[in-house]
Amino acid sequence: MTIVQKDVHIEADESLKERGSALVETAKTAFRLVPRQLNDEIALAKLELGDKKSRVTGVAVFAALALVFVFLLVIALVVAAIAGLGTVLPLWLSALIVTAALLVVLGICALIAVKKFKSLLPLLPELAWRGIRYDLGVAQHGRDFDPASLDPEPMTREQKKAKKAEAEEAKAKAAAERAAKDAENGPTANTTELLARTKARREHLLRLREDLLVEADVKKQATYLVATAKSKAKETVNQAAAGAVQQSVDTVKERWKPLAVFAVAATACVVFLRKLMKK
Prior knowledge:
Elements: H1 3-86, H2 91-120, H3 126-141, H4 157-185, H5 191-215, H6 218-278
């Protein structure tokens, strides 16, 4: 292989390594920025929800006022009914009659509501939920799964209290971990900062995407790989040819060297014998 071919081969390897490292660095940067972008988007969504929550609070206030006035309207209607009956009956008797009628209506509505609510219990689709749990148990344990574990024994009041205390402790621990994580991340950004930051990072991700498309271009990568393969193939062929020629020369030397020595010796003997015969 000539020096020029070696230089071309070295330059191709260096270019391929540089492109490979650039592709890896670009991918690493993209993987690092994407979670940050998602976190900022979530924080922005929380701020927007907080703003909407304040607006919904205003709507709820006015709705509550409307309900209060509806309640007052009902009271006015009741008073009007009592006053109407008071023209025929004594005032106390008319008020008692209207109150009794309201109690009857209230009792009937309460009984109907309780009956319908009991018919809905349990609220979860019991058979479907049990079937799902059964399928999950079979998928996890196979034939060793015990269906009796799907119907646990009812807990006592102490066990319920202990379970509730454990759940509250886990909730407090998770809240403390979130607070510590928020403290590590620094002060919370406002809406303007989040919009500016997400916009800048979005532009950066767009540039990274374009770089990835350029670096990962199949044609260019194939061209570099083909060029590298050709240079390596030429180098291998040249080395093989040079090795074969050298091996042939060595073989000829090893085989014909004794014959050459014998031929020289025989020629010398013939010449020496001629000279002796001439004398």
